[in-house]
Protein nucleotidyltransferase YdiU (Pseudonocardia nematodicida), 483 residues
Amino acid sequence: MTAAADVAFENTFVRDLEGLYLPWDAAPAPEPRLVLLDEALAVDLGLDPAWLRTAEGLGLLTGTAPPESATTVAQAYAGHQFGGYSPRLGDGRALLVGELVAPDGQRRDLHLKGSGRTPFARGGDGKAPLAPMLREYLVSEAMHALGVPTTRSLAVVATGEFVMRERGPEPGAILARTASSHLRVGTFQFAAATGDRDVLRRLADYAIARHHPSCADADNPYLELFRRVVDAQAALIARWMHLGFVHGVMNTDNMTISGETIDYGPCAFLDAHDPAAVYSSIDSGGRYAYGNQPGIAQWNLARFAEALVPLLDDDQDVAVREATGVLEGFADAYLAARDAGYRRKLGLPDGLDAAPLLTDLAALLAEAKPDHTLFFRRLSDAARGDAGPVRDLVDDPSVVDGWLESWRAAGPDPEVMDRVNPIYIPRNHLVEEALTAAVAGDLEPVQWMLQVLARPFDEREGYERFAQPPGPGTAPFVTFCGT
Ligand code: AMP
Ligand code: MG
């Protein structure tokens, strides 16, 4: 059995990036109780799942008794939230415990969310309720299984205390998550705002070493870093769009340098396809609507470019010009990733000019608003000769018939389609139902969902309910950030 002394954290962030964090300790967790643990992920990280279940293991997962090798810190960052700039955000209720280097050499942060107030807490209580932490666990694990780059969830531990939210007292919890790093666009904004170019340079060098080491060989390593982040984000957002994922809070502090999805708050998957879909109660203007996500990503990357300008060239005009050139590449990178993904979703053969089919499909989906997930999944039936199931998804099937005919004439491959079009996604109504049960003490629905979502492409008998959209009459889904 492992002992705390055997858990070897490294602390390169703390070692290299003084000025971008504050050392801080977790608040006590009066009665910690393990609610969920991803055992396979634990093993990948070199942690013994049995040990994580012990009192000592919970000391790590709550941050209350971290191993000797860990240095817990609250990371500093700034960020544009809904377009408005906040110079000092940072981990208000989270801590970086340290980095674990897996046997395969992969370095991952272990980070705790809900571990108590830090100097960045502003008015917040530093705590997290159980339901939103379970929500992040469920959705991030689903995203991982869907093949989307994302932070992962290692564990949820109930703390034994209650936290006050608008709805009343709720059980408190801590989410232990991993990420290839927690560097955000907002981290660069914070570093740039110090006005100390050395801080910014150290951060950029650190990001290059950790995420894009080959940039170091480029003529302008920092411009190359920017290009890689632009490409990684273009690919990520395309994946979200294919799956109908709405992040909900694409603030610059919630956009990673690694290209992983981070910070699952008021996120949701589309039921009916709708570019204007917004699920977050705090997004009244629809800034982060489904269809706006690519544009917002580019807007955030422009803020990243602004932060990098001092490193790009001594002549600011040259720096801005070069950054603008790279930023303009976002649209092409995004459209290429988007179209390549839709080609697979439609099972189209290589070499075919898919542009007319894709353009018409976008218009058709926006007009007929079928269930996003089922529409693509049932297209495989149509490819196999039975268009009934997909026609059933729209009020007026004649709207889709012309398109279906042109698409089928292209010879789509349903086998390819079934590997990329999931049948099971974290349906909002099912997630809410499972979380409600969990808060009342019944974890079984959450366990079921995790099991279903771990294999989103394999249709299984007895799981029909998990593939169904909410019934007619169900109130439109809204997530009250409530994190
Ligand atoms: P998020 O919406 O989770 O990405 O958080 C945005 C910012 O608010 C971050 O700086 C968080 O650390 C901070 N924050 C969110 N909830 C709390 C809380 N309950 N207590 C302290 N800070 C919080
Ligand atoms: Mg955040």
Residues 316-345 form the longest helix (30 residues). Residues 273 and 369 are 5 Å apart (CA to CA). The mean pLDDT is 96. Residues 4-179 form one domain.
